Prior knowledge:
This protein has 636 residues and is mainly alpha-helical. It is 61% helix and 0% strand. It has 26 helices and no strands. The radius of gyration is 36 Å and the shape is extended. InterPro entries: ARM-type_fold (IPR016024), EFR3_Homologs (IPR051851). This is Protein EFR3 homolog B.
Amino acid sequence: MEGDDKLRQAGLRGLQGVVRKTISDDLQVNIWEAIHMDKIVPSLLYNMQEDSLEESSEVESPREEDDPAHLAEVVFRDLICRASYGNIKSVLSPVLIHLDNHELWVQTDFAIKVFKIIMFSVQSQYGYLVVQMLLSQIDKHTKSDPRIKTSIVTVLYEAVLISAGNSTGPSVLEVFNNLLRHLRISIDRKSSDINQRNEEIKFEDVIVNTIGEFANNLPDYQKIEIMMFIMGKFPQFTNEEEIGKMDKQLSVNLLRTLLKVATKYKTVSLSQAFPPEFLHPLLRISLVEDPGMRIIVQQILHTLLDRHGNAHKLKHISMPSDIASLDLTVKINSRQDLLFMKKSGMQLYWHILENLQLASNRVDNFEAIYCTMCLLCLEVGQDEVIVELLRLALDIQQMAMNSSALPLTHICAIHSLVAAFLNMLAQITNVTTLYHYVLKVLQHRQCGGQHLLPDFAFNRNNRPQSWSELEKSDDYPKQFEMREIWLFQQEHLADCLRNTGLDVSRLSTPFSARPIAGGSGEGSANFSDVGSINIEFEATDGSPRAQRRHEEITVESLKKMLADDGSATKVQEEQHRREIVHMFRSAPFEEIVAFSDAKSNNFQNKLTEILDMVSQEKTTTEPQVTEMVFPKLFVY
């Protein structure tokens, strides 16, 4: 045996010399040709395989012993690191063929070891070629055993971990499209055999994790593009009836993939994290019948909304007397986030309201929606958003009172959710009167209305699993009633906020209808509420000001314009602004009305004048028709 090892060592040293000599000398035989690589690479892999059972944990640092396996590894590393762009595939092809022919994929440890060596040795700018070769290998094994495909994707995952940003190459979407295609093929061809299906599920899980790791190596703006790309893989639907026809297994895996990519994204601005092409279809999917899918959608929202690590602290619905115990992080929000909420907030509120009305909700669904509402309050806590969230809470309460289709457990849970959210909102906003009012209602519920508090409604131990259990249960009231003192009254909430200077005029306006998207399909669109529409017909120079005379442009005027720093103009504009503000603050109401009527009449007169000019028919003078006499020679 020792003699065989010496022969193998001699052969490997010979190969090492050939590699170093021929690669550095252009006059020698081209060693990168397939006829040579098909002999050299399998020989090295065969010797490396001998030591696979005694593999060192430090793959990138082989031992310097006179062992054929480690000597083969040194030669293999030397070969890989010398490969250029045009030659790297000549080395990788024999590696893939060798693993196929000897069925070494399922023995994942050896395949991972080989490709770790390749990824550590190859020049960093060529790392994406290794990834592309592995993706092509998956294509060849589309109909192979799921264990083989799982092993190849596992190797791909390890390669991506090492490449750290150089793995995807120029065609980012092609990589994701390839992996998503195999995910869909696996689901479409799922086996009825339980053991086989378990292997297929492992393959699908590995694909999801690999996509997440790919996304981790991309800049944030590309992660958003990837999420929109994945969203485009959902079946196209135009109404709620078609949403229910989606393949559940495919949809769940796509949502899991979205969640995996979202966890790698670091949100800076909500408008960038939620482009309309991504947010609108995501919210539509949040209304599917399956409660598990709805939870994943809420988790995606949590991941992208939460910029300060608050989501895990709001995982369960509770009623803390002091939210300081939760150690929540509240920071000043940007104006961009407020603009985002003005544009897309109505869609978020409406879908939250619709989600709570679904009869298939479980405790996890209610907790996920509660977390979403709290994150909106924490992340975009401007005054306007606070009023809208209060308005949403009142609508949820009214919905629970009017609904006859929901079971008693759901109605109690919804009222408890509203109570917990208002308790949280009152303490976050630090409005003392609001907090005292919420506390007063909660104290009333403690006396006879405990089933409307989170400690009872979200206690999984006392929730009946069927209608018969509910009828026999002594925990829930036999006859449900909702006393006035247990309800949060809109008038009292408005009074509490009005004292702080907030505009509560819209608090009494319900979310009566679904916001309608303008444009087509999933394109960008503004969503507005009827109560928020504010149309002003105002010309650019509608405010009273003296008309400027058009000055003659001369060389002197141009010099004066260049030398002027604009301070005089700014002073005039500031003075004009102050005059307008003063007029609207101090002038009598009748004077303001008269001024507005004058502007309106002026506008109407101009409009009538323009329409008259357009409608006037132009009298065209047609030329008179006269006879023309030609000479006889000109006429036949």
